[in-house]
Amino acid sequence: YIASQNRLFDISDSSLRHYINLRNLTVTRTRLTSISSDAFYNNTKLQYVNLRDNNLSMLSWRTFQNFNITFPLLLSGNPLDCVCENMWIKLRLQEDIDSPELTCTDERGETRDFATLSPPDCVVPKVELTPKTVTVLKGGDVKAVCSASGSPVPVILWTLDMPSTHYEINPLETKSTLTLSDLSPDDNGRVIICSAENMVGQTEATLQLNILFPPTIQQLLGPERDHHWCIPFTVTGNPKPELLWYHKNELLQEQDYIRTMIHESTENEDHGCLQLVNPTHIHNGEYKLVAKNEYGRDSKTVTAQFIDPPNISPIDDMDYCK
Predict the structure, then answer these.
(1) pLDDT tens profile 195-217
(2) Burial grade of 273 (CB within 10 A; 0-12, 13-18, 19 or more)
(3) What is the distance between the alpha carbons of residues 247 and 303, in angstroms, rounded to a whole number?
(4) What DSSP designation does 262 have?
């Protein structure tokens, strides 16, 4: 809470850098004139901002781009200009039905209601990304086109985190083409974002990747004992592979006391185990896991020794036969 500070003129990225848990901020009745676009970059938990009765004439939407639109942003009492740079404030007020009336000053020095603000050549960007989803085999290529409109002419930006895949961007003024080459299974499920931004605001469109690839058994470990016995495994594949178990080369019929359990499932991997409840010596031996989908199959084996077989002597065998 900061109030009546005549020497406070600006808030920059360094002003609140160390207040990472800041939730409520009030700065009122100061000579605050400017707030940098990255002033609240480190304040990701911010929920309430009160900037009433300061000296702000212009504010960038970038300053508040990570600030949830459902949280109150209080700006009354500032000499805001009726300019395109402040148009985003009008758009935000339209989203907030409980917002107080806000005014701005036009080039003639007259006070106007923000709701009537409509500067020329001031249009929030629109963006279209084609295709929106794509399904392709691993090793394949994808081309996506992002088209944008707005005034001033928006800048087109791509956001993609794909360290193992080569990509090229061919930018034009209102269109940008992204080409992805040799797509990897690691890219399955990734979302690529194309955004268009100008001084009025930002709009995003997304492309989701569905990469098809054959199964791989990443690991198959020896039995571990927890509450029950478990043979752990990690399997990848898209579509999700069918899992089959073989015990001593015979197909294992799963039932309540011996069955496959998936403990964690992601876009690309399944982590689980073959769970055995109170296994005996007859369950010892080699276990083979087979994973298969329409694009291929993989298998691995592991040897399990749950309990030593009973030590029956030949004499005991003869007594048993009698």
Answers:
(1) 999 999 999 999 999 999 999 99
(2) buried
(3) 10
(4) E
